[in-house]
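**User:**
If convenient, please work through this fold.
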Amino acid sequence: MNNFAASTARLLGAGLRALLVLTLVTGVVYPLAVTGIAQALFSDKANGSEIRADGRVVGSSLIGQSYNQPLKKGQSIPDPDLTWFQGRPANGLGTNSINTQYKLMLSGATNLAADSGAVNGTCPAEPAGGTLCAQVLAARAAVVKDNSVPGYTVTPAQVPADAVTSSGSGLDPDISPAYADLQVHRVAARNHLPVAAVQKLVEDHTTGRTLGFIGEPRVNVLELNTALKALTAKE
């Protein structure tokens, strides 16, 4: 009996020591080491890839934001604020009642199939309502209308895919250079800026493929609009 008690006590003691050592290593030493390395070598990324303007954090370069006008009476979806560059459509969970439009409660793409509303692989001129084809064609018409200004007319053929489709998460912070370029004349006109100055903003904020071959060239909308705000403040 005494041997059993002594053996049990030794096992419990060994288990307790192992628990304390592993708790110290995995719960204190390892997290502190990883945090220290991250802060020393990748401080920006470790802190959420924050973007600052006027001395305060305005968002993260990893999360898209909406640039809309305040909701008007009777509206369920706000109008875009066309003084700013617009990001990709934020369709969230399609027509789900908890669609959050770039809010971080949840993320997700539309649940419509890629051929929703298509006939023989293409969208008809008048697709059925509620289909992906209907959403895409309505978005394309809006892009053409919103970005056509005196002296510059946008054609449907100019509208890139990312201007009319949401990303898999609905939170994509980037747009293609083609979509940014398409918006230049409208942004310049709305802010009373030279087209060349706004075009230079786009060029300065265009990021190439990662390592030269991964992904596609892109423009971060929040960074671009932050620079636009600084430019308009100078004029």
About this structure: The chain has two domains: 2-46, 65-234.
